[in-house]
Amino acid sequence: MEKTNTPYQALFQPFKLGLIERTGCFSTTVVSPGLECKNRITLSAMTRGRCGQDLVPTDQHAEYYAQRAASGFLVTESASISDRSLAYGGAPGIFNDAQTQGWKKVVDKVHSVKGNIFIQLLHCGRQTHSSLQNGQAPLAPSAIRIRSQNQIVKQDYEVPQEMTLQDINLVVKQYKEAAERAKKAGFDGVELNAGHGHLPDQFLRDSANKRIDAYGGSAQNRCKFLLEVVQSLIEVFGAGRVGVKLTPVTHHADMNDSNPLELYQTLLRALSNLKIAYIVLKNENDPENFQDFGYPASKKQIPCVFSAFRNYFTGAIVANGGITLEEADEGIRIGKFDFVAFGQLFISNPDLVDRARNGYQLNKSIDWGSVFFGDSKGYTDYPKYQIPSNVLSELLNPLKLNDLFLPNRITMSAMDRVRTPAPYIPTELNAKYYAQRSTAGLIVCEATPVSQRSISYPGSPCIYNDEQAKGWTLVTKAVHDKGGRLFLQLFHGGRKTHSSLQNGLEPWAPSAIAIRGNCYSAQNKPFEKPHEMTEAEIQLTLQEFVDAAKRAKTAGFDGVEINAGNGHLPDQFLRDSANKRTDQWGGSVENRCKFVIQLVQKLNAIYPGRVSIKLTPIGHTGDMNDSNPIQLYTYLLQQLSKLNLAYVTLVEDKSQENAEGFGYPASDKQIQNLYKSLRPHYKGILIANHSITPERANQDIKDGLYDAVSFGQLYINNPDLVYRVRNAFQLNTNFDFKTYFGGDEKGYTDFPTFEEEKKQ
Fold first, then answer.
1. What confidence tens digit (pLDDT) does each residue in 201-258 have?
2. How many other C-beta atoms lie within 10 A of the C-beta of residue 609?
3. Which of 127, 408, 423, 459 has the fewest CB atoms lying closer than 10 Å?
């Protein structure tokens, strides 16, 4: 899937609508090249009632559709095919030359802004009133009236005239003539309105069709009228430019079928054989006994029309019916449907495509008094999104980590949240937590021990056995299902643990030097003197990292990050306060970097271009220090530049002089301006971390100090951090430190998004 800079990756994949190929023994022939659609967003046909009595589209219609032309394709409001198919006052027609010329203005304007536009053809059948069509009685397959009142004329629906075979032939001819006018006007295609209780729908469903001839009775017979109409449209436009809208379980206008599954399976097989471009399926949710019609609830008939019919139609499926952008993106990504037709959202968001592409806030304030009828008010006067002057645009630019595309530069830092009790297998709760934050450019999951001897924080998920790897698949699937990307941080505590935390196994370290202080995760017991690792134990540990990376790949992670900072094992090899070895793994800067470099090389064989590392050059956590950090990290970064890493994270620590009584200098005295000092020595992607504000990060990225930023604490309280930054919304900074480590969903998955906050 081609990556674009948008939170809705699937929605912005191009599509060739109506591509028809014929495959022979040795070659494939293109029968219809298809219509190039830039995205999967379509404008649903919506009656807006802005025509005069002549039913001729005006310049106002042209402006309305042109404003929304960035869609993959537009579908106009229903256009009546004759003067005996008029249901809605002010709705346009397509049955005379004046109307055709009016539509040509609309089409020309849409094409002038590179849009695609289909016209929806309508015959309302019985769903009208004689007073709306010059006294002509409504037509229908059977003489059965709708059991309700026509809301336009405020009178009961009339008993319609049952159509003769001559009437049927005439109406099919009128559909074809309307299609010919549409083609003359320049439309890219035509959509048949065969839902919502209009004439083709009346032929389809047995609540309205009681005929006993070739057009009634069996499901196959009831499909006959619709298929004849479709065939006539194909003769004008070609199959690759014809669509059909269907509402299988909508009860509007007194409509129902006793066996909708059988009916629409029969219909969709036939439409597939005709190779039309698409169908629109509306996933209705009418309650039981809707409008006292006595029909079952829509969901009891068919819980999900997309799942029910996906395998019966070979063309594109367009989903419709109260679908959010998030649901649309996910549905397309998993193959549930191919496009989504938005209605209400397009009323108040003429720039819906641009808002979706950029993750801008939607305007959900619709003036319902102006939806039907009127002038430009509530029609063409809704404003486009205005980018706030204080938006942090650098953070929102895309970034490539070798072959991995990030839609923005806001990444989520690995943070221990210790909500995975022994045996340390990730759960649905962990999956929910990470999925909530999936709009991050990249998520780095919490520090994950690679062996039983590497556990520092009880409650952290691990990756040293297959059951744990299987648990991680819950997380990767949840994040990928939301369109996110995630790395697993591989972790070994080294001496920064306690034997009581790892089944009595003594801690290992490059040198037998204990951390001065207490291990808070082991009930504040003093840190123990670690065992100095032998050559064989070093090789074993490197292999444990390799095995963990293999499990991470099996679990579906997009890459791995080595935790080589904060006083953990790789950091202990790097810095001379913890490494006093005199063999090939200690002493010189080159020797002390050997463990990390070999580890990167080994992991590169598993995840080429997808290995990263986190470093804390001036952090003193875990009794760590180096006597010459500039020399050490200059050399290390120069070597890492040769290894095609995905990125390096540098943590800008703020330790004070003699922090925790260790006697080390203040961090900023060791290396002033960490990023400015070290940036020249690393040629790849550099990510900054540690108490950096979005405002500072935006400026630093602009100044070239680093390429992206890793947020920790802000991501705890703001699962929608990217959305807040993109729209310059206030961040939630009410931190509850008591719920940071351990516990349940409180302080973990219960933080609201900005939109949820507004509703509270």
1. 999 999 999 999 999 999 999 999 999 999 999 999 999 999 999 999 999 999 999 9
2. 14
3. 423
Query: Three-state SS for 48?
Result: coil
Kindly report the number of other CB atoms within 10 A of residue 535's CB atom. Answer: 10
CB of 688 within 8 A of CB of 712? no
Query: Please, which residues have CB within 8 angstroms of residue 115's CB and are 6 or more apart in sequence?
Result: 65, 66, 68, 69, 70, 71, 73, 74
Structure tokens of 105? 């203005």
Q: C-alpha angle with apex 392: 388 to 393, nearest 5 degrees?
A: 95
pTM of this structure? 0.80
Three-state SS string over 140-160 comes to ECCCCCCCCEECCCCEECCCC
Q: Catalogue the E-assigned strands of 351-471.
A: 399-401, 404-406, 410-412, 442-449
Question: Both tokens of residue 404?
Answer: 């991995």
Q: Dig out the tokens for 751 from the structure.
A: 């933080």
Largest CA distance in the chain: 104
The yes-or-no verdict on residue 558 having pLDDT over 90 is yes
Q: How far apart are CA 716 and CA 734, in angstroms?
A: 10
- Coil vs helix vs strand at 339: strand
- What's the angle, vertex CA 440, arms to CA 607 and CA 388, rounded to 5? 145
Query: Could you tell me which residues are beta bridge partners of residue 572?
Result: none
Mean pLDDT score, 735-748: 92
Mention every residue, 6+ apart, whose C-beta is less than 8 A from residue 12: 4, 6, 38, 39, 40, 356, 357
pLDDT in tens, 297-343: 999 999 999 999 999 999 999 999 999 998 999 999 999 999 999 99
Under the banding of pLDDT at 50, 70 and 90, the label for residue 33 is: confident
Distance CA 612, CA 286 (A): 51
Residue bearing tokens 């289909």: 118
What is the Cα–Cα distance from 495 to 641, expressed in whole angstroms? 29
Q: Is the pLDDT of residue 23 over 90?
A: no
- Name beta bridge partners: 405: 400
d(CA 153, CA 151): 6
